[in-house]
Amino acid sequence: MSKGRVQDKVTIVTGGSRGIGGATVRRFVEEGAKVVIFDMLDEEGTALATSLGAKVTYQNVDITKEASVSAAVRKVADAHGRIDILVNNAGIPGVNKFAHEVEVAEWDRVFDVNVKGMFLCTKHVLPHMMKQKAGSIVNFSSIYGLIGNIDLPPYHATKGAVLMMTKTDAICYAPHGIRVNAVHPGSTMTELFMKAAESYPAGKQAYLDMMKEKHPLCLGEPVDVANCVLFLASDEARFVTGASLVMDGGYTAQ
Ligand SMILES: NC(=O)c1ccc[n+]([C@@H]2O[C@H](COP(=O)([O-])OP(=O)(O)OC[C@H]3O[C@@H](n4cnc5c(N)ncnc54)[C@H](O)[C@@H]3O)[C@@H](O)[C@H]2O)c1
């Protein structure tokens, strides 16, 4: 019997109920992984897990709350005896306002999910990976963590922070056999992307037109990103750490 690319790897996917996270859950299961979804969308998460069979479970986790994250990670380790892969995918777009209009609570909210939530999941998974002397973490940045654009200023700041967390953690944990990499998707057809489009001051259609223009190839589908996450998470990427993998239909090549 041929082996999958992440055969039997115990994998946590945050924000795995839908969108890019959902596509990642599906691809990992196809390649043999045992996956635990951390999300707050109970209906979608449970339905996805049920549709994929016994290898997938769902846990209600708010990644911005340390008690919620630590209890959920402990439960995964108790159930499986190890944690091989963490996909830090959960994220929100936050408000679409320029800096002088952003309320502190709005700034804090997007940082809470996109940066603090990622830190908390990483913090609680690392001791298990350190004990194993092996592990792979994939952090979701964005092309917006590499370049600017005339929208979502607080979101851009969070995704830049993710890039630096990734590089520093890669160096700090290499001696423990743990790899940490970042993905930088371009516009990908999900609810988050549509929410960003709907909040664009010039209107949804103007946003879609602007984004299509900026992607020479095309806009992305969730599976296009999931395939790149799969490579970085798997042992095929055993020499890759601290890297930024861009999948953006050529947006940032210009
Ligand atoms: N869609 C794009 O165009 C695009 C582009 C670049 C980067 N990204 C990044 O990809 C990742 C996935 O985005 P998506 O487009 O699939 O979004 P999505 O909105 O479809 O899915 C995000 C998931 O994260 C979950 N989530 C949000 N807050 C949470 C919390 N506090 N605790 C647990 N789960 C939480 C949501 O419930 C949802 O299931 C995000 O980090 C996003 O910033 C997306």
Features:
single chain; 254 residues; alpha/beta; Rossmann fold; seven-stranded parallel sheet; 8 helices; 7 strands; 47% helix; globular; binds nicotinamide-adenine-dinucleotide
The number of distinct structural domains comes to: 1
Low-confidence stretches: none
The radius of gyration is: 17 Å
SS field, number of helical segments: 8
CATH architecture: 3-Layer(aba) Sandwich
Biggest sheet overview = 7 strands, parallel
CATH secondary-structure class: Alpha Beta
User: Under CATH, the topology is which?
Assistant: Rossmann fold
CATH homologous superfamily classification: NAD(P)-binding Rossmann-like Domain
| Whole-number mean pLDDT | 97
What is the helix content?
A: 40-55%
Sheet with most strands: strand arrangement: 3-2-1-4-5-6-7
Shape field? globular
Strand-residue proportion? 5-15%
**What distance separates the N and C termini?**
44 Å
The ligands bound in this entry are: nicotinamide-adenine-dinucleotide
Total strand count, please?
A: 7
What string gives the helices and strands in order? EHEHEHEHEHEHHHE
Q: Structural class, from secondary structure content? A: alpha/beta
Short description:
This protein is an alpha/beta fold and about 250 residues long.
Report what the structure shows.
It is globular and about 50 Å long. The protein is built from eight helices and seven strands. It has a seven-stranded parallel beta sheet with strand order 3-2-1-4-5-6-7, with helices on both faces. Strand 2 (34-39), helix 2 (42-52) and strand 3 form a beta-alpha-beta unit. Helix 3 packs parallel to helix 4 (104-132) and helix 4 runs parallel beside helix 5. It has 254 residues and is an alpha/beta fold. It has a single domain (10-253), classed as Rossmann fold (3-Layer(aba) Sandwich). Helix content is 47%, strand content 15%. It binds nicotinamide-adenine-dinucleotide (NAD). Nicotinamide-adenine-dinucleotide binds next to helix 1, strand 2, helix 4 and helix 6. Nicotinamide-adenine-dinucleotide is lined by residues 14-15, 17-21, 38-41, 61-64, 89-92, 113, 117, 140, 142, 185, 187-188, 190-193.
